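Q: What would this chain look like folded?
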Amino acid sequence: MSSDRLDPTAALAELGRISLAENDLHGVLTRVADLARRTVPGAEEVSMTLVRGGAAETAAYTGPLALILDEWQYRQGVGPCLAAAAGQATVSAPDLAGDQRWPGWTERAVEAGVRSSLSVGLPIEEHVDGALNLYGVRHAAFDRDAVTLAETFAGYAAVALANVNLYAATAKLARQLETAMASRAVIEQAKGIIMGSRRCTADEAFAILTAISQNSNRKLRDVAAALVAEARNGGDR
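A: My prediction, written as structure tokens:
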């Protein structure tokens, strides 16, 4: 794996260049996991855990081993990634063979060839916790420098994830505003048509549209759009 290793400075710079406009949450998490695997010494496989409403899921992973190790924890309800996410803390397990904190899971992890793990909690947003999980095949795979690097990397990752959520919320608001403006425009057009045909005021035209909407059990915008389309088609004939 040494051939694809990255210098920490280069990896963190690359993390900062992730385009939020071109990646959804899954895309960002996958990129974060891959960069962590290639950056932190001792990391054989990496995963990203998200916990929403008490339900945990692996949102991204670099290999099937990481996914299996995570899912074993979810089934048992205990494990380093869950502890890190819940406590927003760094949970290090340098010797899984002798670790008694998570009975059942540690034995299965060792049988799968994993000797050590490191999980760093990620505060993502309200009601959502997460953890960056690194698994090593060597005993004490993560020394003090590796732990420090993982925590620094996790800090950058948390900012990137927060920005993804902010970008998504902003984009959603923009779409809602665009829809609202389009609805208002078509309603104003429909009011103009009614005012011209019935020689009434703007308020009276809006009252007519509202009455049609209520009587036909259709949205006001749909009623307005149908009237505008009818007027346009009549003008084309």
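The mean pLDDT is 84.
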